[in-house]
Amino acid sequence: MPTIAMFYGIIVRMYFAPGEHNPPHFHAYYNEYKASVDIRSCEIIEGNLPGRQQKLVLAWAELHREELMANWRLVMNGEPPFKIQPLQ
User: Fold this and answer.
1) pLDDT score recorded for residue 18
2) What is the pLDDT of residues 39-48, one digit of tens each?
3) Residue 85 counted as domain residue
4) Per-residue pLDDT tens listing for the chain (88 residues)
5) What is the residue range of 39's domain?
6) Strands (E), the chain
7) What is the pTM (predicted TM-score) of this model?
8) Residue 66 C-alpha from the chain's centroid
9) Into how many domains does the chain fold?
10) What is the pLDDT of residue 19?
11) How far apart are CA 33 and CA 45, in angstroms?
């Protein structure tokens, strides 16, 4: 699963798999925590993250929603996603 961004110890990845299940989403990892985040609503749909990291991931997702959707379309077509600017 390609890494599309890393910031503050958080790794954001998107499956490179045509036919990945809807809704459009990405995966965020922080230490032993992991969560799936809906791109359209910017809400956690599975798993969990510590409070501060959750806020950072959801803020980042809102800022980069269009890029995340473009990446989703790429992976649905079997193409690799591109890197997205991390939070700074």
Assistant:
1) 66
2) 999 999 999 9
3) no
4) 799 999 999 999 998 766 667 889 999 999 999 999 999 999 999 999 999 999 999 999 999 999 999 999 998 888 899 999 999 8
5) 24-80
6) 3-7, 10-13, 25-30, 33-38, 43-48
7) 0.92
8) 12
9) 1
10) 62
11) 14
Identify whether 1 is part of a domain: no
8-state DSSP, 22: S
The CB-side HSE value for 28 (13 A sphere, CA atoms) comes to: 32
Residue 43 lies in a domain: yes
Cα–Cα distance, 16 to 85 (Å, whole number): 19
What is the DSSP secondary structure assignment for residue 23, as one 8-state letter? S
Kindly state whether residue 18 falls inside one of the protein's structural domains: no
**At CA 87, angle to CA 41 and CA 46, rounded to 5?**
35
Strand, coil or helix: what is 81? coil
State the DSSP code for 85: P
| Both structure tokens of 8 | 């503050």
Which residue type occupies 50? P
For the record, the structure tokens of 56 come out as 């950072």
- Tell me how crowded residue 58 is: count the other CB atoms within 10 A of its CB: 18
